[in-house]
Amino acid sequence: MRTHAESLPMTAAYFSLIARAYGRTEDDRRALFAGTDVPETLADPATEITLGQQLRQIRNANRALEPGWSLAVGARLHPATHGPIGFAAVSAPSVARAIAVMSRYSEVRAPHFRLRADVGRHEVRLVPEDRVELADDERTALQDIVLLSTQGMIEGAIGRPMREGRIEVTSPAPAHAGRYAEWFHAPVSFGHREAAVVIPTEWLSLECPLADAETFAAACRRLDAGARRLAGGHALAGRIEHLLAVRGEGLDVAIVARSLRVSRRTLARRLREGGTSYRELVDASRKERADALLRERHLDVAEVAHALGYGDPANFGRACRRWFGTSPGGHRRRITGGDA
C-alpha cells in the first residue's frame, strides 16, 4: 500500500517552500533534501514530484528542525500558494461552493489527504482524512500544515480572520502548544479523535467578497484535469493537460514523453486508446487559454496570438473561427459585451 501511495504525483510547491524557509545554509539544504532524489537546484515550484519525496522531506525536517516548524510553514500558505484550489476557494460565489471545491479536489493538490465536510445544524466540521499510511511524526507535521491551510482558504472565502469556530488537533498538547495561538485565529484544543476546522453553519450562505465567475470556472477546469491525472483510465491525458497548463502549449511532444517516462510511440498509442491525441490536447489547452486571454481587454488580438504561439495572426483567426465560430474580435465582443 505504502509503495503505491508514495508514487502519487504532486506539486513541488510545498517542497520548495520548506526548502526556502529552512534551507538557509548549505548544510541545512543538504539535511532537508537528503534521500529525496530531488535536486537541490530545484527552482520551479510548478515541477512535479511524488508524495514519497515530499514525505521524506517532512521526516528530514522533523529531525533537523525545532518542534513546531510546521506551524510556521503552514502560516505561510495563503490561498494563492495552493494554485487552482486556492483560486477557486476565494473566487467561489459563496462559502458553501468554496467548501464544496475544497472537499472535492483537496487530494489533487496534496494527495495524502481528502477533506471531508460534515454539515450540521449549527456547525460545519472540515476534517482532513488520511488517504495514505503515515507515521505519527509525519501525521503531526502534515496535520498542522493542512489545518492552517484550511483556515487560510476559509478566511479567503469570508474575507476576514475566522475568530469564531475552533480548531481540533488529534495529538496530545505538545511542549510548544502555546505557539498554536500565534498562527491559528480560533481557539485550539488537543487530544481529539479526529482533526477538524470547525465553523458556524450560517457562514455557508455568505457571498465570497472576491467572487468571480470566470476565475472560478477556469480554476475548476484545471482541478478537473488534475483529478483525471490522479484517476485511472484517462490518467495519462490528465497528466499531459497538467503539463500544458503549467508549461504552455509550445511544449514539444518529445519533451512530454520524456517527462512521463514513455516513448513517443507509447504516448501516442495510449492517448489513442483513451480516445484522444497529443494534438487534440494541445488544441483544447490553447482554446481554453485563448478564451481567458481574450477576456483581458488590455491585450490586443495580436498580443493574444503571440502569447499562444501563433507567429501569424491570421492563423490565430482561423483557429478562433474553428473554436468559437467567429473571429477573435467577435468572440471578445460576445464574452465581454464590449468593443473588440
Approximate shape: globular
Helices, by number, come to: 17
Largest sheet entry: 5 strands, mixed
Terminal residue distance:
55 Å
Q: Please write the string of helix (H) and strand (E) elements.
A: HEHHEHHHHEEHEHEEHHHHHHHH
Strand-pairing-aware structural class: alpha+beta
Number of domains: 3
Counted beta strands = 7
Q: For the residues shown, what is the average pLDDT?
A: 89
| Rounded radius of gyration (Å) | 22 Å
Give the fraction of residues assigned to helices: 55-70%
Low-confidence stretches: none
Beta percentage is 5-15%
Main sheet: strand order: 3-4-7-5-6
Describe this structure in words.
There is one protein chain. The protein is an alpha+beta fold and 340 residues long. The protein has three domains: 1-65, no CATH class; 68-211, no CATH class; 232-336, Homeodomain-like (Arc Repressor Mutant, subunit A, Orthogonal Bundle), CATH 1.10.10. Helix content is 55%, strand content 9%. Helix 4 crosses helix 8, helix 6 packs antiparallel against helix 10 and helix 11 packs across helix 14 (278-294). The termini are far apart.
List keywords for this structure.
alpha+beta, Arc Repressor Mutant, subunit A, 3 domains, five-stranded mixed β-sheet, two-stranded antiparallel sheet
